Write a sequence for this structure.
């Protein structure tokens, strides 16, 4: 396998695909449909592209992927899915090709590089807006993600999309594939099994991005991606249906469990490669690069794929601050992670990675989480849940088993130190974990930081004596290393549940102030799962405490003066959009009032 790697050939390839237009659905209400093969009447059986194969001589191939425009304002009705699905519930995994990989990690048995921190009984979470997101669809698990723009929040689940204003007002909802009327991706050819969707808001480009996967038979698989034409999801989207049957040696593979991220130059997608045909059932990781210079303007998508011979469940960083290059992370051992980057991602891309050890022992979850009512919630396998990047600092998190067998949320902070351009290797700065009370499980953590380098994390929590809930914990940049605050409950269910849960939660930073952090998680109701969207900021309800350290002092005054000189929205204390004497007066009043 990967014979070309032995010759030092780059594993990058440039690809594209003619978008294929499917039939419009006449469905007038949400339906749960089984995946199906592509009918010959579509013409797809004849026009289906060949598998994407890395050329052993040149190392890459060039293709093009044309764009399909759709205006969501013409969808009728605008809100197609307004409540929980009342019908049979199906598992996404039941309709995927059979797939398996060895998830065993080597045991390095190395001591922690830095002391692991725990949970401090203080509060660092101030809750903001909270509202119900998408309710139970015909599928489980929901796999919820969210994207936060200046005025809107986009949410995706299996297999639907919705967006809201920031007060929770539902503006649009549809199914992703052909069961919609129409489906969000239907016009570009997407059919009735659009799974594992993800979304984000690229604050550099000021665009929303939505992704979903398709797989139908032993030679049909796609990665669907859509980019809004501005910072308002209502209106024009540029959509691409890109081929994702990957050929390696004598086998072909489909893409599962995607990651989605961005830096200043590109949108990145990762995925696991599982066998479609041939002798090999596992193909490693796929790294797909979408050049922003074409897709942001609705031009043909320029896509570059890199296929290494290692890696699994690789997560992509979502960049903040100065992010001239993207980073990726995956687990490497029980006490190590692998940090990846792509050199020259828009030219002749090649992957570079190194191992960062010294993590506290991170045994994969060995048990499901109990919940009130006697059910058990699947806590997955210890894979990294998300990656957050800010000014060269990378944050990630996952669930691990503690000594009692319970699952707890673990997080890591790595300073890349300018690697690989600086010649200095990244270092582990801090690591910590959030434990509940005895018998409580905390799992599916999603981590993010704000512009003050404070950190917040959302998680699921459950035990035999309580329904599953959504909780959040945070730390100020001035807290001792590795310490997170006592979790704050953001939402709790009122019903039992059993089986797949999640399979992950998500977090996003508000681009307006780069300080408010939004989360999506889920709880259980009588009708099934219910996603919850909440906002928070880190610190106390004390506006003059600008550095969120719990006290008012010289440092807050100095930070106010610095931010005021930069016309930073954080010090627009009277909220009029101006930076003047009245903001100074308001700040002083808050300062004198104390916390």
């Amino acid at each position: 396998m990967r014979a070309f790697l032995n010759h030092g050939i780059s594993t990058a390839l440039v690809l594209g695909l003619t978008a294929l237009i499917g039939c419009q659905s006449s469905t007038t209400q949400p339906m749960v449909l089984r995946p199906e093969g592509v009918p010959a009447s579509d013409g797809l059986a004849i026009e289906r592209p060949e598998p994407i194969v890395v050329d052993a001589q040149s190392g890459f191939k060039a293709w093009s992927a044309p764009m399909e425009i759709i205006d969501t304002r013409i969808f009728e009705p605008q809100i197609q899915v307004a409540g929980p699905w009342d019908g049979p519930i199906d598992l996404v995994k039941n309709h995927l090709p059979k797939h398996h990989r060895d998830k065993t990690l080597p045991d390095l048995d190395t001591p922690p590089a830095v002391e692991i921190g725990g949970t401090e009984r203080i509060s660092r979470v101030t809750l903001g807006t909270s509202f119900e997101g998408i309710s139970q669809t015909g599928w489980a698990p929901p796999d919820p993600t969210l994207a936060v723009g200046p005025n809107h929040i986009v949410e995706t689940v299996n297999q639907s999309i919705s967006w809201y204003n920031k007060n929770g007002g539902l503006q649009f909802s549809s199914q992703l594939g052909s069961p919609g009327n129409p489906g969000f991706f239907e016009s570009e050819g997407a059919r009735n099994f659009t799974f594992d969707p993800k979304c984000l808001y690229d604050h550099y480009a000021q665009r929303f991005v939505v992704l979903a996967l398709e797989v139908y038979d032993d030679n049909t698989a796609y990665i669907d991606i859509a980019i809004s034409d501005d910072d308002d999801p209502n209106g024009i989207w540029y959509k691409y249906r890109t081929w994702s049957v990957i050929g390696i040696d004598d086998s072909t593979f489909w893409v599962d469990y995607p990651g989605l991220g961005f830096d200043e130059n590109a949108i990145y997608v990762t995925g696991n490669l599982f066998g479609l045909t041939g002798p090999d059932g596992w193909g490693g990781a796929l790294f797909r690069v979408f050049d922003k210079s074409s897709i942001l303007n609705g031009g043909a998508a320029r896509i570059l794929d890199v296929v290494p011979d290692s890696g699994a469940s690789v997560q992509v960083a979502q960049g903040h601050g100065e992010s001239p290059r993207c980073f990726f992370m995956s687990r490497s051992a029980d006490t190590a992670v692998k940090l990846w980057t792509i050199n020259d991602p828009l030219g002749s891309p090649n992957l570079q990675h190194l191992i960062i050890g010294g993590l506290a022992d991170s045994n994969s979850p060995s048990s499901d989480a109990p919940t009130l009512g006697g059910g058990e919630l699947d806590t997955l396998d210890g894979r990294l849940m998300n990656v957050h990047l800010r000014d060269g600092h990378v944050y990630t998190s996952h669930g691990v088993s503690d000594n009692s067998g319970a699952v707890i949320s673990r997080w890591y902070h790595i300073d890349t130190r300018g690697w690989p351009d600086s010649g200095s290797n990244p270092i582990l700065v801090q690591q910590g974990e959030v434990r509940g009370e005895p018998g409580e499980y905390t799992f599916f953590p999603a981590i993010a930081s704000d512009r003050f380098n404070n950190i917040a994390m959302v998680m699921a929590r459950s035990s035999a004596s309580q329904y599953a809930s959504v909780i959040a914990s945070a730390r100020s940049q001035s807290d001792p290393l590795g310490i997170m605050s006592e979790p704050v409950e953001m939402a709790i269910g009122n019903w039992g549940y059993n089986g797949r849960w999640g399979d992950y939660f998500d977090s996003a930073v508000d681009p307006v102030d780069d300080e408010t952090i939004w989360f999506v998680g889920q709880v259980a109701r009588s009708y099934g799962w219910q996603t919850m969207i909440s906002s928070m900021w880190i610190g106390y309800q004390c506006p003059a405490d600008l550095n969120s350290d719990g006290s008012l002092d010289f440092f807050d005054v100095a930070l106010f003066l610095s931010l005021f000189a930069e016309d930073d929205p954080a010090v627009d204390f009277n909220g009029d959009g101006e930076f003047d004497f009245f903001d100074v007066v308001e700040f002083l009043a808050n300062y004198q009032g104390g916390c």
